[in-house]
Predict the 3D structure of the following.
Amino acid sequence: MSFAADLRTVLAGRDFRRLFATRLVSQFADGVFQFAVAGYAFFTPEKQTSAAEAATAFAVLLLPYSLVGPFAGVFIDRWSRRQILVVAPVIRGVLLLLAAGLVYFDAPEALFYTTALGVLGVNRFFLAALGASLPHVVPREQLVMANAVAPTSGTVLTFLGAGAGYLLRSAFGPGDLGTTTLLACSGVLVGLSSLVAVRMRRDLLGPDVDQGRPQMAEALKTVVTGLMAGARHVLHRRQAAAALGAFAVHRFFYGMAFLMTVLLFRFYFTNDAEAGLDKFTLVIAVSGLGYFAAAPITPWVVDRIRPRTFIALLLALAGVVTGTAGVSFNEYAVLGLAFVLGVAAQGIKICVDSIVQREVDDVYLGRVFSIYDMIFNATFVVAAVVAVPLLPADGKSYLVLGIVATGYLLGAVGYWFGSSDRTRGGDHSLRDTDDVVR
């Protein structure tokens, strides 16, 4: 079935429509907020953003998902999920209005970033509650369909929210007033999702009563021991471990390239902050096209070659294109590079998802995907921190470019040999599980 047909099917349920609307309103507000933070951190005319400040912004945007994510389930399995969806947006709205006030009154940046960290931490609980609530609003036979359309639609609304943030910033100006307006609008919008959620019954979304569940402290301890058990398990699954390693390699060097690109468009290609933001927005849009292009390309390729081969080829392609197109430090070449890295990023992720799902025992799968989620965000932040002392103020660095290009190529070679499994008769194609890849 097509995406549109799947969406029409699940929208027939009233409770799903309300949960879905809660997600859409919230993620649209997320897009406005994320654009506000990016503009404030990187493209405010009054600020001369350094690589260190950019790395700090990345940490604020990404670390809550790594640190809070594995523990979120402990709480959403104990608290009313409907109440989480009602209360969390109110808390986020208050924090966003506080952040707007901090910017307007020119408070220390540390206070702003602390508040933004709180916004994202609360949002992690909100998103986890949305995912856990889905089985309560759709029939079991429609669950896979709902899991496909709901997060994808949310991502689209986040992009649209970022676009709305761009328009608002253009209307209200690039200075503190514009950032304040964006944050305030985001706070009001996210509060509206609470009004949608409150229309659902308090007991609709669970959690179901379980008298045998462990106490909170024991459950939190279990999260830590569970992650350790998942890590030990995946280390004994060579292809899964190698695939996660390849993904970590990609995210690390992608993070270095991303930080360099931010600085290039802020200080090298133009000295005008607004012109730089316009051009960088185009880079993000082109990269997004690469992500979307990978969705149909990857299943088609994996029907013809092994996913292991495709991952190695994508890492190698990223290295070659970075070394050839990037070396010119031309903004049009960077646009082409952004598209290629977008294709590589999503193509690698689709294949790694499938390898992990095939190789890891089901009883460990949730814990391994929690580790996967932590790798996704933490390696990006570590890459930014590593790149800070290597990048000049304008971002033009042949050294960093060479490190990224070489790192991708070495990663391709390392993954190719590291993922071979002679004890099992060589690499196993995923053609038996192509439905997972698709």
Observations:
- Residues 214-438 form a domain with the Growth Hormone; Chain: A; fold (CATH 1.20.1250.20).
- Residues 423-438 have pLDDT under 50 and may be disordered.
- The CA atoms of residues 353 and 437 lie 8 Å apart.
- The two ends are 12 Å apart (CA to CA).
